[in-house]
């Protein structure tokens, strides 16, 4: 009887203690799993499989300044090659484009890269204003469930810090020009999606070897970061680095709830910049790190589904429409060059040049030749600027006597297309030199004369016959 009562009491006590024991086991398991995940996050690559978009396009914002000629902006070709090496293509976003053109290009890109450089970060400066608008578009897209990654490198990281803090004096000065350095991981590095995507040996190399190329005078101190609650809510600090004097600055940031990453270091330089006056790490470990970081960002871009309306619009926006210039060629031994190659882009504000555009016109019920002549006349008559410009054309290629009457125009959605090899350059900006302008104006004057004669003086039924007589010097 006593034994039976003891067994019953034992069962009752066990049942009473079961919830507590179970809770303790669950809590311990969760805590151990959290610690294990934190410890292993830097040891186990967690690369997402992002194959929703197999044709990713990244937008790169251009900027004014050296090495671009006056009135033009540039994109260092190393950024383009870096993204292409991971399977992406590039659309240049001109820093001085109109808002409508910027939004048009944002709509066809799957991610944004804000590059390094020396542009001014102040309201009213076109580079800053365009960068801010692009960041706002990216934030809005992500808020609406449209996954859109953004990466800032060097100046790009500083740009994000200024924009998201709304503090134009938040940056400090550091002695970190030509100063490759290891990364000092913070406690929040364990939660970094970027680091977790990298192979463990690459993460270790970044921590133990000076393979991250630092080359900047400005930067973000930890104290300034902590003094700005908005930045702390948006970004986690993944790593710090030390400048030549031993001062610490933030070298890697990552968005807490947005797919934003920022590095004060240059992952694109390791594989694609070769200037001898900078100590850019070119070791196997450095090259591999550069590639893995590119792979991460492009994989993020594959999660975005933006695309052009058609292949013509896509082709017209790609950076393949421009040729890189060998800016790293030395004229003498010891000359300092920043970039091996760069793309020079002419924007609508180029000084000393004239922009020629065509007015958006309805050309229905007009023959192809007449429509072309009238549009050409509108271009010439419009002067230096036409409101409502739809696109810019390279007229010195179009205005050849033998092709004046072989061009046809058709309207397809919001773009004009030509029947011969020169497609419309929707959204692209192309300026003409004075010599090119003179040639274009002369050809346009000829078109105007032909159009006038055809309308007022030529009465024959065959247009080709009338044109031939006109070109031969015979008029009615």
TrEMBL record:
Active site residues according to the UniProt entry: 154 (nucleophile), 266, 266 (proton donor)
Cellular component, GO annotation: extracellular region; vacuole
Keywords: Hydrolase, Secreted, Signal
Keyword Signal: yes
Annotated catalysed reactions: (6S)-5,6,7,8-tetrahydrofolyl-(gamma-L-Glu)(n) + (n-1) H2O = (6S)-5,6,7,8-tetrahydrofolate + (n-1) L-glutamate
Compartment annotation: Secreted, Extracellular space
InterPro entries: Class_I_gatase-like, Pept_C26_g-glut_hydrolase, Peptidase_C26
Record-linked Pfam families: Peptidase_C26 (PF07722)
Cross-referenced PROSITE patterns: GATASE_TYPE_1 (PS51273), PEPTIDASE_C26_GGH (PS51275)
Protein name per Swiss-Prot or TrEMBL: folate gamma-glutamyl hydrolase
Lineage: Eukaryota, Viridiplantae, Chlorophyta, core chlorophytes, Chlorophyceae
């Amino acid at each position: 009887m006593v034994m039976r009562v003891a067994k019953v009491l034992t069962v009752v006590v066990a049942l009473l203690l079961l919830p507590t024991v179970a809770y303790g086991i669950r809590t311990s398991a969760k805590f151990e799993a959290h610690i294990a995940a934190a410890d292993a996050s830097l040891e186990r690559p967690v690369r997402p499989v992002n194959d929703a978009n197999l044709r990713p396009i990244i937008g790169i914002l251009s900027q004014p300044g050296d090495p671009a000629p006056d009135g033009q902006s540039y994109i260092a070709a190393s950024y383009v090659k870096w993204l292409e090496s991971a399977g992406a293509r590039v659309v240049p976003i001109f820093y001085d484009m109109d808002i409508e053109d910027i939004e048009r290009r944002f709509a066809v890109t799957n991610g944004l890269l804000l590059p390094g450089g020396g542009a001014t970060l102040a309201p009213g400066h076109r580079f800053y204003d365009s960068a801010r608008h692009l960041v706002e578009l990216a934030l809005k897209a992500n808020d609406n469930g449209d996954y859109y990654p953004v990466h800032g490198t060097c100046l790009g990281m500083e740009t994000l810090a200024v924009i998201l803090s709304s503090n134009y004096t938040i940056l400090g000065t550091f002695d970190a020009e030509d100063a490759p350095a290891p990364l000092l991981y913070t406690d929040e590095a364990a939660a970094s999606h970027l680091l977790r995507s990298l192979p463990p040996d690459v993460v270790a190399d970044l921590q133990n070897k000076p393979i991250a190329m630092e080359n900047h005078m400005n930067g973000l101190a930890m104290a300034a970061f902590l003094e700005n609650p908005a930045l702390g809510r948006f970004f986690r600090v993944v790593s710090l680095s030390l400048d030549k004097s031993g001062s610490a600055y933030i070298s890697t940031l990552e968005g807490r709830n947005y797919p934003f990453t920022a590095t004060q270091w240059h992952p694109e330089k390791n594989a694609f910049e070769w200037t001898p006056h900078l100590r850019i790490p070119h070791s196997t470990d450095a090259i591999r790190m550069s590639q893995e970081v590119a792979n991460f960002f492009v994989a993020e871009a594959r999660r975005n589904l933006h695309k052009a309306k058609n292949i013509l619009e896509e082709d017209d926006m790609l950076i393949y429409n421009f040729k890189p210039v060998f800016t790293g060629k030395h004229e003498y031994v010891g000359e300092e060059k920043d970039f091996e190659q760069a793309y020079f882009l002419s924007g609508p504000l180029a000084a000393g040049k004239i922009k020629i555009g065509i007015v958006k016109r309805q050309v229905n019920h007009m023959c192809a030749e007449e429509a072309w002549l009238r549009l050409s006349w509108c271009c010439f008559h419009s002067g230096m600027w036409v409101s409502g410009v739809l696109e810019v054309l390279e007229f010195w290629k179009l205005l050849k006597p033998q092709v004046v009457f072989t061009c046809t125009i058709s309207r397809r959605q919001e773009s004009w297309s030509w029947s011969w090899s020169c497609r419309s350059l929707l959204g692209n900006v192309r300026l003409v030199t004075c010599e090119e302008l003179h040639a274009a104006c002369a050809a346009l004057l000829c078109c105007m004369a032909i159009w006038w004669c055809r309308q007022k003086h030529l009465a024959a039924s065959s247009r080709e016959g009338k044109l031939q007589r006109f070109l031969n010097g015979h008029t009615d």
